[in-house]
């Protein structure tokens, strides 16, 4: 699906609809000291405990695309998450 890289959406800081520049959202690096990372290391990667079995989870085939939208007036950043799942999305410049 092609998504325009400039959209007119609501800005909570300006309290009105303004133009926003979109860019693809990428999650940051996982924290090394978070409880999930520490429990994973404790269960699977330490000592002579043999091979621990992971629980089998079926992953969904596609994700909901999320974007980081930056207001052109006040530079406030908001998340824009599309409510439908899709395999491919592409940010495109809109020709006027």
Summarize the structure.
The protein is mainly beta and 96 residues long. It is built from 1 helix and 6 strands, in the order E-E-E-H-E-E-E.
Description:
10% of the residues lie in helices and 33% in strands. It is mainly β and 96 residues long. The chain is built from one helix and six strands. Strands 2-3-4-5 form a four-stranded antiparallel beta sheet, with no helix packed on it. Strand 2 (6-11) and strand 3 (16-24) form a beta hairpin. It has a domain at 1-29 and 61-87: Nuclear Transport Factor 2, Chain: A. The chain has one helix at 35-44; strands at 2-4, 6-11, 16-24, 66-71, 77-81, 90-92. The mean pLDDT is 90. The longest helix is centred in the middle third of the chain and has 10 residues, at 35-44. The chain is elongated and about 60 Å long.
Q: How many β-strand runs?
A: 6
The first-level CATH class name of the domain at 1-29 and 61-87: Alpha Beta
Classify the beta-strand content into a percent band.
Answer: 25-35%
Low-confidence stretches: none
CATH architecture of the domain at 1-29 and 61-87: Roll
Total helical elements: 1
Structural class: mainly beta
Radius of gyration: 20 Å
N-to-C SSE series?
A: EEEHEEE
Average pLDDT figure = 90
Main beta sheet strand tally, sense and closure = 4 strands, antiparallel
Strand order of the largest sheet: 2-3-4-5
The helix fraction, in percent, is 10-25%
Task: Characterize the quaternary organization of these chains.
Answer: single chain
Shape descriptor reads elongated
User: What name does the CATH topology of the domain at 1-29 and 61-87 carry?
Assistant: Nuclear Transport Factor 2, Chain: A
- For the record, give the distance between the C-alpha atoms at the N and C termini, rounded to a whole number: 19 Å
């Amino acid at each position: 699906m092609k998504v325009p890289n400039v959209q007119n959406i609501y800005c909570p800081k300006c309290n009105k609809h303004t133009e926003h520049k979109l860019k693809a959202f990428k999650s940051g690096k996982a924290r090394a000291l978070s409880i999930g990372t520490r429990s994973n290391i404790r269960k699977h990667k330490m000592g002579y405990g043999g091979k621990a079995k992971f629980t089998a989870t079926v992953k969904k085939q596609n994700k909901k695309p999320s974007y980081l939208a930056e207001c052109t007036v006040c530079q406030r950043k908001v998340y824009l998450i599309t409510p439908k799942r899709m395999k491919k999305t592409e940010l495109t410049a809109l020709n006027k």
